[in-house]
Write a structure and sequence with these properties.
Length: about 80
C-alpha cells in the first residue's frame, strides 16, 4: 500500500467524476484540507473514512486503497499474520 499512489487514485477518481474536494469533504465528514492531504499521500484516512469515500463513489474500498502498484491489481490487507 503506497499512500502517494492511493492519493493519486483518489484524486483521479474525484476529478473524473467532477466532484470538488469540498463536496467530498462534506459528504464524508472531514475538512477540505484533509481531502487534499489524502490526495497528496500525506495522510491516510481512517477505515471509516475509507468506507465513506468508497461508498460515495460507488466503488470497492480495495479499488482505491489496496491496489498493488506493481501488478495494478487489488491486494487484500493482511490480518496481522493471524490464521483464519
Amino acid at each position: 500500500m503506497n499512500p502517494k499512489e492511493n492519493g493519486k487514485r483518489l484524486r483521479e477518481l474525484r476529478l473524473a467524476r467532477g466532484i470538488s474536494a469540498a463536496a467530498l469533504a462534506d459528504e464524508i465528514g472531514v475538512t477540505e484540507s484533509a481531502v487534499f492531504f489524502y490526495e497528496a499521500g500525506e495522510r491516510t484516512p481512517r477505515d471509516d473514512k475509507k468506507v465513506a469515500i468508497a461508498k460515495f463513489f460507488g466503488v470497492p474500498v480495495a479499488e482505491i486503497f489496496f491496489v498493488d502498484d506493481a501488478t495494478n491489481s487489488c491486494k487484500r490487507p493482511t490480518n496481522g499474520g493471524e490464521k483464519q
